[in-house]
Request: fold
Amino acid sequence: MMEWTDRHCRYFHRLLTRQALIYTEMLTTGAVLHGDRARLLRFDPSEHQVALQLGGCEPRALAQSAQIGEEFGYDEINLNVGCPSDRVQEGRFGACLMAEPLLVGDCVAAMKAAVAIPVTVKCRTGIDAQDPQSALFGFTEIIKKAGADALIVHARKAWLKGLSPRENREVPPLDYPLVRRLKAAHPDLQIILNGGIGSVEQAATELAVLDGVMMGRAAYQECRRLLAVDPLLFGVPAPFATAREAALALIPYIEREVGNGVRLHAITRHILGLFQGVPGARAFRRYLSTEAVKSGAGAQVMADALAVVMDRGVDLAHIAA
Reply:
């Protein structure tokens, strides 16, 4: 979720669910080691539990980056071995590392030796001509031996040659049964399912067998769904009764960040899908899209955008469906 789940997005998602683990966008070891750490790694204390996702292939650099992440206060370090983009492949990280499981094992072992917080891996079921069953099961054995605390499996192959990143999210078929078999073979390793999960209700069904479910684009594009996470999955009340209330709770954050020089659009671009399916949603999106980008735009723009949306209570069945 590069350039999506930045700190502004995560802050708002935390307003919608207090219980779910939130992940950063993928940051490369080069950015962490040599970039503006204060800008790249900072997060609001309310975001906990929050995991830092890293991209890299050099054990020492990953260990150093993981240690920096721990010092910044992150609760987990996650290694991305699933991104299929050309840019990522050129850097020799992401999904192409599925072809080098021993190297991934070395990376995990180095990070585990450097930090006390959990180290996890996110992968695909395989790449290109690999057989998913043998590739995924062999990969799991190696990262488990290296000490990984959990494996998050995007239940599709990645075709590094011939498919774009977007096509790699849609064209290769999902294989949830393979991930369930992996869990049965490794009952002592946390196995988390990713890929194509479109609702909290679907996630709840998978949790009957698996240890966790990761939602990406569905959670981002229709973020109102996250209001159902706490009551349906954790048995505690949602932080707010309505999406409007959650959006109103974002206004003090907007005032603070805009006062610190952040452009309003950098925050509101993450909430355009909040009212998907609610009367006034299109007008809300249109208003924010045109007004939040203007120089000097502030919290009043957000308040005015909310005025065009009909209020509505939480309907958990509708949100989860």
Observations:
- Residues 313-321 have pLDDT under 50 and may be disordered.
- The longest strand covers residues 119-127.
- Strands lie at 22-23, 27-28, 50-55, 76-81, 119-127, 150-158, 190-194, 212-214.
